[in-house]
Design goal:
Number of domains: 2
CATH architecture of the largest domain: 3-Layer(aba) Sandwich
Number of helices: 10
Strand order of the largest sheet: 2-1-3-4
CATH superfamily of the largest domain: Nitrogenase molybdenum iron protein domain
Oligomer: single chain
Largest sheet: 4 strands, parallel
CATH class of the largest domain: Alpha Beta
């Protein structure tokens, strides 16, 4: 009889603990009291970690060094989305994430693109390759984080959403958003000063990812491929880009860190230019770097390639 009572008490304790654990997950807080936040890829993790500091536990869906455009989710990651207090993503950038958010966390998601006005994808992005799906009319360029001014606005809106999910610590999120805005404003000033006077203002890139940066600082981006870095440019597109590069006296063709530099090398050989890295910051590839260090490295590369004098 005593043994049966002991087993029954143990079963109740186990069940109670399981229910409590489920309650913690349902509330969106971990056992350490931190708010559970899931981010889709690096720039959104950067924002969430800066705004959240010690108050949040951030899980990123895109592994370091991985190309985020075509990320696929495993069951554990879908469960993370389902359990999170807030999912921070960019609608239209990662289809698998869009689908999981719609099914598992539609009422607990923050679309970074909803906080600012997005630029339309360039006409060249819509070049149709036979056998591949055509781009939808009215599609937008997702690479909004490369504009520090827009990113500061997104940070402010994200701080509001974090505060709604965690009212007790809302003031901290707001305070850190103000600090981050000041840092991004300083970065914007560095870019505006560094790119004010340049011998050239055409920016030839392997991947059309820098339209927001170009729009902010009065540059013109010429992309070899479109918004997706994995797309293959047609021979006609390669010829047009080479002609534009020659006509503008381009000395540098930029390629990025997460995809092959093959197309950039092809154009560079064609026009007698060199190649250099311009990082779209879709993911970090080097340790001890962050958004600010990579953006400043990009600025240095741009001022050299464009012949800028401050």
């Amino acid at each position: 009889m005593h043994r049966r009572r002991l087993l029954a008490a143990t079963a109740v304790a186990v069940l109670t603990g399981a229910v409590a654990a489920c309650g913690d997950r349902a509330s969106g807080f971990g056992t350490d009291g931190r708010l559970d936040v899931v981010t889709a890829f690096y720039p959104l993790r950067f924002l969430s970690e800066h705004l959240g500091a010690d108050a949040v536990a951030v899980t990123d869906l895109t592994k370091p060094g991985a190309e985020p455009h075509d990320v696929e989710l495993n069951p554990r990651q879908v469960a993370d989305i389902s359990d999170a207090a807030l999912v921070v993503y960019l609608k239209g950038f990662q289809p698998a994430v869009d689908e999981a958010v719609e099914q598992e966390a539609a009422d607990r998601a923050f679309d970074a693109g909803s906080a600012v006005e997005l630029l339309a994808a360039a006409d060249d992005d819509h070049e149709h390759v036979p056998g591949e799906p055509e781009h939808a009319e009215g599609s937008t360029d997702p690479h909004v984080w490369l504009d520090p001014v827009r990113l500061a606005t997104i940070a402010g809106r994200l701080a509001e959403r974090l505060g709604q999910a965690d009212p007790a610590r809302a003031a901290g999120y707001t305070e850190r958003a103000a600090t981050l805005r000041s840092e991004l404003t300083a970065l914007d000033t560095e870019y505006a000063t560094g790119l004010r006077t340049c011998a050239r203002r055409e920016l030839v890139t392997s991947h059309t990812a820098f339209r927001y940066l170009a729009d902010r600082y009065g540059l013109t981006e010429v992309g070899i491929t479109g918004v997706s870095p994995e797309s293959e440019p047609s021979p006609q597109r390669l010829a047009r880009v080479a002609e534009q590069a020659r006509s503008t006296g381009t000395t540098t063709i930029f390629f990025e860190t997460l995809v092959s530099p093959k197309v950039a090398d092809t154009i560079a050989r064609e026009v007698g230019a060199r190649t250099a890295v311009l990082d779209p910051l879709e993911g970090l590839t080097e340790p001890d770097t962050d958004y600010f260090s990579v953006m400043r490295a990009n600025l240095a590369a741009l001022t050299t390639a464009l012949g800028c004098t401050s």
